[in-house]
Amino acid sequence: MQADVIVVGLGAMGSAAAWQLARRGARVLGIDRYAPPHDQGSSHGLTRVTREAVGEGEAYAPLVRRSHAIWRELEAELGPDQEGPLMARTGVLVIGPAGSDTAFVARTRAVAQAFGVPHEALAAADLRRRWPQFRIDDGEAGCFEPGGGVVYPERCIAAQLAMARRAGAQLHTDEPVHAIEREGGAFRVQTALGTHHAVQVLVTAGAWLPGLAAAVVDNGLPWARELRVLRQVLHWLAPRPGHEAAFEPGRCPTFIVTRGERYEDTFYGMPRVDGSGGVKVGTEQFEHDTTPEAVAREVTDAETTELFERLVRPRLPGLSGQALRGSACLYTMAADGRFRIGETEPGLTWVSACSGHGFKHSAALGEALAERLLEGRSAIDLSPFAA
To answer: What is the pTM of this model?
Structure first.
């Protein structure tokens, strides 16, 4: 096929970019090694946290704000064709040590103030009164963003791909890409099933990007060689009998709880909004690398017990250690946690390093990438992520 743009990888960012490119009139071919939405990469797990007051840095706030608007627009366009809402406003509560100007709660509050995000600063007594299902220490504080909540990644990807098809994009699934080569004024993309041509190629292959870059770029891609692929584990815990109502939306917000700056002391969770019956909780690990081919897909009982005993039970006594389900996903991490956007040559753009917090930004990033590829610039400044 001859296209204007080939998008390699149709997860969070690729599905968004394919739709945004197609709706602007570009001839788009999207290619994925699986059939998205799928559970082999980073964009699954029923829910993802979303909030405008992004403690990871001010550069992300315009992306998440625009993403919220895009998902609402997309819900309206799809109407009865969608499986369910793409986003739910549960509120997001960040809990952590009080009194530090650099702690995560303080950074979250600073971004909220800088961008006019509605929020509440709460002392320990306020937290105990509002959300008695949490155990709160006297030296803790919180920041509550009522407009935050969750997005449903599988639904978002499916919706964007459906809209891409509606706008004329061709989508090839179960088709791994093996090579990307310059051919005159265009590119030839070789897959397991055939050869395709395009003026531009956008690679949004997530955890497969480092390997693809090493295979198709002379001397590799320097910043891609520095990326790490990490296995992260998600658990859906059953409430203890009689405590189910305490974890329903409206009674329980989406939450991030930390005792300090160490990732080992932090966990996050969502109320019962995904139909599983459980409260989804997770933490992060940055010690053990993996690959998409070698990652352990199964979640063990020992992993659930370790998280529950170390972090969850001391904070949420209304939850049990019974896992209703578990899932492993992949982070593709840059050392500084930022996204990476760069070209290896004109027309060949590589986008990676969601760094564990990319989904809430993905709709706007897809739009900005489409603008950049077709118009040479984007409404949202992408320079903080230049590779």
So the answer is: 0.96
